[in-house]
Amino acid sequence: MRLRLRAHLGARAALRPRLLPWRAGHPAPLPDMPFTTGTARWREGVAVAPGPDWEEAGAAAVAVLPEGTRRAVLDARALRPEEAVAMASGVALHAPCGFRLDLWHADTAAVAPLWRNARAVLKGVALARRLTLAPGNALTPKLFARRLRRLERHGIAVHVLGRKRLRAAGFGALLAVGEGSANPPRLVVLRWPGRIPAPPLVLVGKGITFDTGGLCLKPAAGMEAMRADMAGAAACAGAMLALALRDSPAPVAAVLPLAENAIGAAAYRPGDVITTLSGQTVEVVDTDAEGRLALADALTYAVRAFRPEAVVDLATLTGAVITALGHHRAGLFGNDAPLAAALCAAGEAVGECLWPLPIGEAHRRDLESGIADLRQCASGRYQPDACHAAAFLREFLGESPPAWAHLDIAGMVDEPADRPPGAAPIPGGFGVRLLDALVAGRFEDPHRR
Amino acid sequence: MPDILFVKPTLPRAGAMVLPLAEGFTLSGLAREADEATGGAIARGLEAAGFKGKKGQTCTLWAPGGHLSRVVAVGLGATPDERSAEAAGGATWPLVSAEPEAVVAAEGLNAALAAALAFGARLRSYRFDKYRTKEGAEDKPKLVRLAIASAEPEAARAAHAPLSAVADGVFLARDLVSEPPNVLFPEEMAERCRKLEKLGVEVEILGPKALKELGFGALLGVAQGSAREPRVVVMQWKGASQGGKNGGKGEGRAGPVAFIGKGVTFDTGGISIKPAGGMEDMKFDMAGAGAVIGAMAALAGRRAKVDAVGLVGLVENMPSGTAQRPGDVVKSLSGQTVEVINTDAEGRLVLADVLWYARERFKPRFMVDLATLTGAIIVALGHEHAGLFSNDDDLAQKLTAAGTAVGEALWRMPLGEAYDKALKSDIADMKNVGGRPGGSVTAAQFIQRFIDTREGPMPWAHLDIAGTAWATKDSATVPKGATAFGVRLLDRLVAGHYEG
After folding, report:
1. Domain count within chain B
2. What positions of A carry a catalytic annotation?
3. Residues with Cβ < 8 Å from A436, sequence gap 6 or more?
4. How far is CA B2 from CA B69, B85, B88, B121, in A?
5. What is the CATH number of the domain that holds B192?
6. Which residues of chain B approach chain A closer than 8 Å at the C-beta?
7. How far is Cα A157 from Cα A168, in angstroms, rounded to an integer?
8. Looking at CB atoms within 10 Å, which of A52, A273, A356, A443 has the fewest?
9. Same domain for B306 and B178
10. Least CB–CB distance from B381: residue in A329, A358, A416
11. Domain range spanning residue B60?
12. What is the pTM of this model?
């Protein structure tokens, strides 16, 4: 979305659909308005009362604009600057591609810097969405890595490891996942230096550019959605862009394992034992539980290469988390209560909600293997697979693990099967705003220790 | 089941001796006497076996000398507490149950820990063998006398008395859950509740006629496919209002605590029938009711100073010519209508009416329901935690703490409007299922719609125990099979916060 900030509007501009917020209890801005909350259309535009917040009001306003509207005026003169920006963000997050908004506010000097920050985050969200929506043939690991290279122009250091170097370094798990595909894996490392001399926060994102399930092939119905199996990596990339655009002082890195899980003559098999970067051996049980393998090596690399203050990984990891939490909350696992609390708070603040789930002793025991150091997952029906996956990942944080959180975001990307046709799809880019809010709230204070 | 005695320390002359030992132990008291009597064989044996006293560690020394047939050492961990003493007792049981007599050298433990150890052994000793007709005496446990040698046997005995009542409640619940479904159907289960009258519990049984008159439309819809009639049992324990010093009228007491259990004595799924594989497990679909009955027995058995009501909705869910169909609309006791999409989501229909009734009739201070409600909770959490849903943070926190204290772990799960929307029906007030995503959450949302808050807040918690009601392998104090999950938890909740 493009936004122009205006202190005054010309007569022509005023004719465009006008979004007119007002507060409950205040006199209605127009006569004949019979309601006090929600939205209403009149011939010139849309009036909006805030829902839980102004961002939602912006979303609600978009929903009732006449179809095909490409441009609107947000008459935010009655709002405080931060409210105006929140509402504009709401419009931006829900408006169609190429939408233009004129933000009308008396105090443009106060609004402008707020909008600059908001815009940085929205750009990050847009990047994550574009990547997530890209089809599997347009976003192979190589093409994904190429697109991430473009982040260099924003001051982000981009480092790409190809198959040869992955092999030499011993990324056995990531390579195994990519073995069946003609498009070999990549590991992309993004670094935003920040200004605070502290160990970085490292983001790790699952980047399976397309997931067929491998030899444990998924059913055909719905497989097309598996182009989004790199939403974790996309969210991390989006968050890095947001941090760079708003010039965050916090040092943050992202480690993104990219691979395609395909069927091929060289594909890895159930029963294979692979040696991960950590040196631990893993018995493959289900080739469709590939995300945790790719993440395992990435986590090991992240901990070894950065000695981070904290590691947060995001992954569309399991169907089990959807059974557990549906499409309204992502699953949160981890080993550090303060980090988990900070993530939950950040999520609530930006409307990307999390819910903590356990890693129990039994979950780890279920992964014991008769032949290797651990099994990748348990077999059989009714398995707490999201918990198993988290228990698995925890084994790859090294001898003295940093604070770590794992977000299983499968439910936030998959669309509910019962979404009525024509209803707005779930906005992608889950995680970008959450990570940005986490960094802003927890990692930008230079005196935090 | 053996007699459990608390005795003064005297060296046994035969049989088994049990040594509960903490990390860094030195043999003292009876253990030392036994060691001396065996010429140091015990100390040497433990050393050779690498026994360190770690939690869960056990070591059996056979015929170490003297007349002892075996000495069993069990680890208490670094700092013995009630949980580790219980676990040590539980670990002891299978190692000594082949002996007629065993003495536990527990002088090193205080009265509470000695009692906890005995309690653990008792819990582990549970066995459901009434249908094994060909099992010989040699296959059964022989232990008839478990003597706990304590420095303060009187105090230990006193500490053990309430635990013994709780164990009775646990065993009752395990019996109910273990019974096959042709033996235990609603009417029979209701009759077994009558046995609580001996403990002073008022038991009232509502049959189909009464339920129909009252308007239990949702529960009756579930029951209508079965030849077995449904029952709702109301159990009241008036431990505070009668006899207790805090009782009596005119004190402005809060209402009773209320426990509600799902009691589907067998769940075929109904017309939405379940797959054959594993259907036999559905005899434990009344484990929530079993836990409530067990908890009432525990509270009454230890004369708890609390007013408690337990209500269980007992039905059998069968497919037949009279069975409820997917698509039926039923009118619940609350007046709300429900479109039945899946007849296998029957537990929530039963709970809906019973919860509504409990609230209307008893005005309880809080309600906790227990139900083997969803397979989704197993996918969400596995078998270590039961799912906890609540509209009240304080109650949720107390339940979680009680569960941790007794080893019946809970994990809080979310509720929220977004989930509630999945229950929207085109034809009735709600559907009875919300789809696979967040299946346990939408089930809880369904139940929440039957928590009447019109007259003010009604603290409520729902425990989805589908993953914890049945164990496929032994653990320290729970032999495989029916766990009675919830009995100890509810008892502890009451003991910790609602007595006196």
Report:
1. 2
2. 218, 292
3. A121, A124, A239, A242, A243, A350
4. 18, 18, 17, 10
5. 3.40.630.10
6. 375-376, 378-385, 409, 411, 413-414, 416, 418-419, 422, 435-442
7. 22
8. A52
9. yes
10. A358
11. 3-151
12. 0.93
